[in-house]
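ok trying again, last paste got cut off:
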Amino acid sequence: MRRTILVVAAFLFCHIIAFAQKTQVDVTKVIDAEKAFNRLVERKGIKDAFLAVADPEGIVFKPRVIKITDFYSSIDKQPGTLKWEPKFARISANGDLAFSAGPYTYQNDKSSDDDKVYGDYVSLWRLDPADNKLKLLIDLGVQHPESDQEELIDFKQPDTSKHTGPSKDPFAGKGIIIATDKTFNEELTKSSLASYKEFLSPEGRYYFPGFEPITGPDKIMKFIGNEGINITATTLNVGRASSNDLAYSYGTARIKKGDVVSDYNYVRIWEIDENHRWNILLEVFSAVEQ
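nice, full thing came through this time. structure:
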């Protein structure tokens, strides 16, 4: 019943603010931003590159939420080499919100391959209207053993039928995402499997420390069932594209696996479907190191 109310609210909000625009948006914009960021890391190093691309409100989890500018301004030059490659990417119909995800490799010592760290990153980007460039809003990742398989590329253009104008009341759209995220968190306390079955996008992806990305609701729910995961989570903040087709949320989570209880940060990417339901397109958990 609660999700039905949220769907109706999203439907009304979308139609209240909709009007036709002809601006062309291409998903390659976020892919190009990632590649430029990667080249910047090679030239300037990790610290200076993050400071150069950071959104003023951009955050990382070190281990809790901290602004990118605050964290990297407070540390010395970060050693090592970091490389990554986008494999999964989307951009909103209005082009003001985008994300990409893919494998990364971090190496502290160039002279040896023994200290290489492998994993997958997730980066969320927001458009800076001042220079029409995407800026890094959220960045986090999960570590896992080196993969022996190449990740498939999944870049998809936005649905232009969802292209709308800026909202006269931006808090209304944000409120819907907050309510949806909190509803999902409440449902998780009752049944993890039932909650994911209801909220996952058919293209949903799941990133959990120690494991390679899991794609598809069936595989995700099988993983959660096999691992015996019980989740309690708290929403911290959310945001959404002005075109009302892509959104994000992040917060804290406590996950119980058997007798082991650990703390995590989470980020969710939400997409709206043809029935105006917000579904989880991507979820990533980042372990809080004690």
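cool. Confidence is low (pLDDT under 50) at residues 12-22. The chain has two domains: 2-23+160-287, 28-155.
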